[in-house]
Amino acid sequence: MPPSTFKPRRFSHFDRLKYYIGLAAFGILTYLYFAPGPVLRVLNHQSISPNHRDAASNSTLGFQQILVLSMRPSWRTRGLLAAAGYTGLQVSIPKQATPTDELIDAFRKLGPENVKHPLRGEAFNWLAHLDMIKYINAQDYDTALILEDDVDWDINIKSQMALISDAVREFTYANADDDGPYGRKWDILWLGHCGEPTRLDTRRIEFSDPTVPPLKNYTGWASKYHDGLSDGKRVVQRAVNPVCSFGFAVTRRGAQKILKWAGKGENEAYDIRLMQGCKEKRLSCVVVNPEVMHHYVPPREFGHISNVAEGNGRASEAEEEEFERVMGNTANIANSTRCRALFDSTCMRN
Ligand SMILES: *[C@@H]1O[C@H](CO)[C@@H](O)[C@H](O)[C@H]1NC(C)=O
Ligand SMILES: *[C@@H]1O[C@H](CO)[C@@H](O)[C@H](O)[C@H]1NC(C)=O
Ligand SMILES: *[C@@H]1O[C@H](CO)[C@@H](O)[C@H](O)[C@H]1NC(C)=O
């Protein structure tokens, strides 16, 4: 082509425009890709000291104590102690006092007429939980994990908690000099619950955990709440709807706040009262989703009745001796420690 017919300037404005548009698009995409998203952030393990992770996998899972809420020895506590032995956890079961009928009745009536009030079994359970929090407060524990006595967890609980400690520290912007494996900038750390919504717009720290069951295998509320979850991942986020109190930790400050908030009744159950506190931001609640603890349920043919239902007078004393020898199931836990310890098996509900 002769140079005279070459008209380089003819399209130069258009070309330059395309160039700038391309450059801008590239810049925006690069920014979007690398910028720390305000909502979903992926855990940056590098920024965290391995000491916290090690402490979170110690025999009390990085809390000062693991305390079990239990009214009496039963299949629940026997299974729990077997599971604790299997995963090398140190748990203590403080002696619970039985509240009087008069106290239960009075507690049920607390608050104005137009709020919800607990039924008898729920009030009984609520008072037991409050006694536990008072005990934690009296002992002046830095942190404590409270377990209900039918709770279950995965045989990999220690490695799960190590990941969770990183994520909780990052989510709550724990100070570098805070030596708590989970920091201390929370009142309640909810580990075992019935399902917590993670939506696409939920602010959260996400991390890979190879022990998470496939999302399609979740049952109960947990199966409906996972728009913002992906397979093989867990998240740490703020709790807005954490029901069921299978396993949750409190800080010293959290115990004091719970005594004030939940000490006055005014809802249908203890866990619902805590959930209300989380929702209304009276309590600072951090939740792990999906849950790492869930309750074990004995085989259905034995007509299992929960402690709360027993308290409501709906109990039939099942033949514990018999059903303890037959495997039940645990929802949403891939490799149940109870079933591994007692039956050398997995028992995830499907
Ligand atoms: C586990 O770690 C926590 C936090 O550092 C600590 O308070 C607790 O005492 C440790 N547990 C044991 C059994 O040493
Ligand atoms: C999940 O469910 C499928 C059947 O839908 C089953 O084959 C699989 O074993 C389940 N996984 C776990 C971890 O239970
Ligand atoms: C459960 O744990 C056992 C023993 O470690 C292992 O062989 C098995 O693959 C695990 N199963 C699941 C579903 O994780």
Automatic annotation (TrEMBL):
Keywords: Membrane, Transmembrane, Transmembrane helix. It comes from the Eukaryota. The chain crosses the membrane at residues 17-34. This is Glycosyltransferase family 25 protein.
